[in-house]
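Weekly structure sync - notes
Attendees: PM, LS, DV (DV joined late)
Agenda: review two folding runs queued last week.

Item 1: First target. Sequence and structure tokens pasted below for the record.
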Amino acid sequence: MAVAGAQTGERYTIRQKIFKIFGNRFHIYGEGGELVGYCAQKAFRFREDIRFFTDESMGTELFSMKARTILDFSTTYDVALPTGETLGSLRRKGFKSMIRDEWMVFDESGADLGRIREDSTTAAVVRRLFEPAAMFMPQKFHVEDLSGASKAIFRTHFNPFVYRLGITVVEEDERFDDILILACACLIATIEGRQSGGSGGTGLFSGD
């Protein structure tokens, strides 16, 4: 897909309008500003089945994320191609993520592949107790393999109307291909928006 941007270093950007009443709409842009992915997520689904397409026509599916269980705080999400081939899965670390978000990443066979961690416990606690702090302490998530080597970084940008999550690929690794990294980022954007109380994301953790 796209290569890293020379100015921002962000290979992809997820944008989501805030204050949607029914469902969420995500746009994924490449480093040159071109649309590379789109999702119109339906509201009031008891079991998540999130599908991303190459554009707004939704004619060609890019990948999907499907929850294994219904409304489970720590459920596992399977990431798959339109062919049905599984690329991997993601599972949130339950109540531990109430303090500092952490996800487990597994490969297509279910083997432990790595982690997604919010930047620091201190910063996470401050953001949760005092939301305006997010203007000065934007959320960051680090995608790491089992050795702790950084593979990608997700960073939110402040804007009261549009959620923006920038995706920087730190190291090329065939185990963490672009689709799996995008799926990780899109799932975090979905969960963060929901737990912040808005239907389309949170203004304090967002950007333009």
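Item 2: Second target, run right after the first with the same settings.
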Amino acid sequence: MYLCRQEARGRRACSAWKDCRAQKSLQSLEIQVCAEVPAVPGKTAGERKPLAESCGASVLRATNEFGMGRMKSEILNENPEQVTSTKERLVKCVKEVLPSTTKTCIWLLKITIGVSVLILFMRYFKILPWLSATLGPLFNHFGLPGEAALAYVSGYFVNMYAMLAIAGSMDLTARAITILGVMSLCSHNMITETAVQGKTGANPVRVVITRTLAGFVLAFVLNLILPLSQSDIAMLGGAVGKSEAAVAAVQPLFKELAVEWCYSTLSILVKMTLLIYSLAILQRILSEFGVIRWVSKFLKPLLLLFGLPARCSFLWIVANILGIAYGGAVMMEEVRAGKLSLRDIKLVNQHIGISHSNLEDLALVASIGGIWWVMLLSRWAGSFILVWGYRAEMAIRKKLLTLQTKTTL
């Protein structure tokens, strides 16, 4: 009878052991149960020892029979060949990513080279300076001098580095740099980034209009709410005619422009290629080991506030850290793999269109005098309005479509 009770205790112990993952836990469990063998009336200590050993053996046999089998069934899914080493899983991730990433990388490189050649000729034929001079009077409504239009147009068609190179050489106040920074962060590198967003399913025309108008609206609002100092008033009063003078002062030869284009384009292509492959492999590895699911849970409250689904977390992180151009490969891979729906992509594009590159680009603008938290929070507020406005638009369209269907029937 006593041995039967110990056998039952051993079988109960094996059920508690099912989550253990090492033989050491087995031994600890055996010792613990054996130590709990109570004194048996009429039995000496020497006679109780075989009973304790029998008890431990029973626990070990029961555990091996039930716990180990259950654990192997759960971990191996009844197929030991499915479980591979960490190294093999990493190699598998790389092999799976390379074909599709290579196609995406080639497409992005073609777009980048084409856009850079277009900008080269726009600079040589003075199209960029002409656009800057035309937009100069408009910028006074944003609290900016006319010469700031050249920096904005350069960033609009090229990238943030072009805007920073020109803005850094101007005598702008912190207020002016902040406003100009918000405009450029909302709408820079428009040709390349619009092509990337269009490739993921966004409407290119809508992307251009939304990002451009968002930059203008935010600049206008900031001009109203940011305090105006005496330095700002003096800057605006003495800025007349500076834009044309600055444009005419520097007009390099085509050879100089071509050499500069070769170095800058080669640098961008190398950097972009490395980042595209690195991000694609990283995304696949994080997905393989379940890190993305954990990150999604952590960011879920913030993304819900912005009106975005939690499954967009990795894409949101990539866009906020690296931007749209460098993170485009990840965006297209997510769409190609079917991990995000078309609705999810449209919502994400509404958000990241004016709020991306919040690490490097934001720090660069802050380094020349911009107020970083104003530039960040103002664009987050704008993206909040855009996403929830787009959600309302989709809900209204769905309602109208339902009413139209009922009327037709």
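Discussion on item 2: The CA atoms of residues 136 and 146 lie 4 Å apart.
Action: LS to circulate a short write-up before next sync.
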